[in-house]
Amino acid sequence: MSSWDTWWSFEPLVREAARLRRTLTRRKWVFVIAVAVPAAVTGFYLWRAPDRYEGVAKIIVGRASAEDALNFSTRWEPQGKELENQLELVKSHEVITAAAALGRRRYPAAPPSPEEIIRALTVKPLKGTDIIEIQVEALDADRAATLANLLGDAYIAAHLNERGKRAENRKEFIDSQVALYEQRLRASEEALEAYKHGAGVAALDTETDELIRMDAAYESDLERTRVDLAVAESKRRFYEDELRRMQERLLTAAADVSSPVAKQLQDKLVALEYRYANLILKGYSPEHAELNALAREIRETRAKLADEAAGFNGGDGATNPFAKIEALAGQLDTTRAEVVALTTRRAELSTATATAGGRLSTVPAKESALGDLVREKEANEKMYLLLLEKREEAGIEVAAEIGTARFFSRAEPPAKPFAPRRVQSLLLGIVAGLFLGVAAVAAVEYFDRTVKNAALVHDIVRAPVLGIVPFLGRVASEGTGSRRKRGAAVLPGAVLLPVVARGPKSPGADAFRTIYAQVAYLFAENGGAKGVVLGFTSSRPGEGKSTISANLATTFAQFGVKTLLVDADFNRSALGRMFPVESLAGLVDYLRGTATFEDTLSSTPVPNLTIVGTGSQPSEPGPLLASAAFGDFIRRAKEQFDVIFVDVPPVYPVADVALIASAIRKFVFVVRAGAINAVELDRAVNALGQVGGTIIGAVLNGADAVETYGGYRYSHYYNYRKAEDPAKPWAAAQR
């Protein structure tokens, strides 16, 4: 064979496939049970599992400017990492509780609970977009879609509430200032009019008017600065309060972690974030070196925690509290800078106002008093107009926050359930069962301590292994099929001849020819090949001793050896299923003295082969086998036949073989591969030796033909084999 043919040879693959098939056949019940259990469990689950529907709502989240809010623009700007916080906001206790409250009005008979919504909820972003997908599972299509939409409504409300808190806080402060300055303006106007009537002064001279207007301008700027400073202080306090609130939540944060390492990382992360927020509250700028180092350590710790515990939940719906702390820190730093600038400007304007007030001290008393009232009235008027303008700006800011989250598409009741996927699940269960079956067979094979190879048989039996017989099939093995009645004749059409007669070119037939050669030369070396008596036994029933003896007797007969096959296994006769027994009398009848030796002989379709059946059914086989008549039967057989094969009972569970060991002496021990462990085999061999039986060799039965013979195709081998006269070692031994 060329190297190319060797490279592409399928022989190893065929050998492994045949080995796997044989192993699965031998362990078929292990395989069947292992396959059936997952398939049955999957089928039962699919039979009992109700249909589940999934409602899907999509919400787009963006950041709109004030101009977009006023012009009703539909342009949306991406939010970056802010989308992560919005994903967690959807799963927050606030949103889920609100959705459950809305659901109670929709389903008063079976209201959804927050726990039900949490179990059924899945939230994920659509890649490359600012769209959040809300998925809710339910046993009803309408309920699934409704709950998804209710969650969307509750999230939008919570989202707007969160984003509008800062603008609302500023607007409330300005509203209070508008009301205050409205009262001041009204009071100053009334005081000015009353002074004009009472003092008789209607107007100021040009110089005094100019001084008063200058002083009023300074005063107005000073009041504007004070208001701006108050607004900035309000914003600063708001951001500081938010930071303190974040600190409190960090102290009480409880993440759902599953390992001590994750718990340790979580505690470290909370401590770092708390320290970062505390330094911000103390006045550190986000650009400070210590804060930069803290921020870097926080990000590294968060990355480790994400790998270990798959995320951290800060308790307020934000998956990353540090992102919010960073944003608040930047806003607080900007506000603090604004407060410092406004404080400086206020000091400068206070100095300018004091200087202008000094100039007015030289003005006559009546004009000075009138000037003070005019100045106060104009200052209050300017502040009132300024506050109205700022209130309008605050209203615009609130409006700008509205509309940053909206439905991209509302959920519709699905037409069909998404789970369970019965066909796919059943196929998966079957595939898993197949893998489990192979694994179970492999495990059983690995832990199997039974005898399965010739080397171990040789070591235990302490005799040569005459041959290895491949698995011949259930029909050819003893102990299968229906048993005929004891002593009843079997028609030729109702029997199955041994494999060497049915398939002379099969691997089994070739195995028996190998055993024939081994036995023939073994007796030739011992100096005798005439009237040989050989018993066939095994440790326990079912190991194939009857099949081996019948096939080996047929092989000897095919090589021209005059052979007698005796069935001495009265309890479990099997030879009658392989040969037509013409005589109704058998070995039992001869031992009882009711039949002659010739009456027990039955010819077979195989030339040179004669068989003696059991005959009548004995009530007590032991005394018959131990009688002198059995020895006399063997002596008569040795006079007429070259070789006598006796199928004797197994060593266990009865003691019949011990009763006839003295008459037969030499035995072939049959061992079925995988049927008995080494301890039992050793015990049986010792028991046979203790009663005088000598084991001249052993036969390993039921082995894998591919493993034994290397996977050759015997039909092809014999087609190309040259015709020749087969060697007859028995004849050579007789010479």
How would you describe the overall organization of this protein?
The structure is a single chain. The strands form two sheets. Strands 5-12-11-6-10-7-9-8 form an eight-stranded mixed sheet, with helices on both faces. The two termini are 41 Å apart. Helix 6 (93-106) crosses helix 8, helix 8 packs antiparallel against helix 13 and helix 10 (260-281) packs antiparallel against helix 11 (289-309). It is built from 27 helices and twelve strands. By secondary structure, the chain is of the alpha/beta class. Mean pLDDT is 76; it is low at 64-79, 310-319, 474-494 and 709-735. The chain has three domains: 24-49 and 420-447, no CATH class; 167-402, no CATH class; 464-723, Rossmann fold (3-Layer(aba) Sandwich). It has helices at 3-7, 11-26, 28-48, 66-71, 82-90, 93-106, 114-120, 141-199, 206-251, 260-281, 289-309, 321-360, 365-401, 422-447, 454-461, 499-502, 507-525, 545-558, 587-592, 597-600, 621-626, 628-640, 656-664, 678-690, 705-709, 714-720, 729-734, and strands at residues 53-61, 121-125, 131-138, 405-409, 465-470, 532-538, 563-567, 601-603, 609-612, 643-647, 666-672, 694-703. Helices cover 60% and strands 10% of the residues.
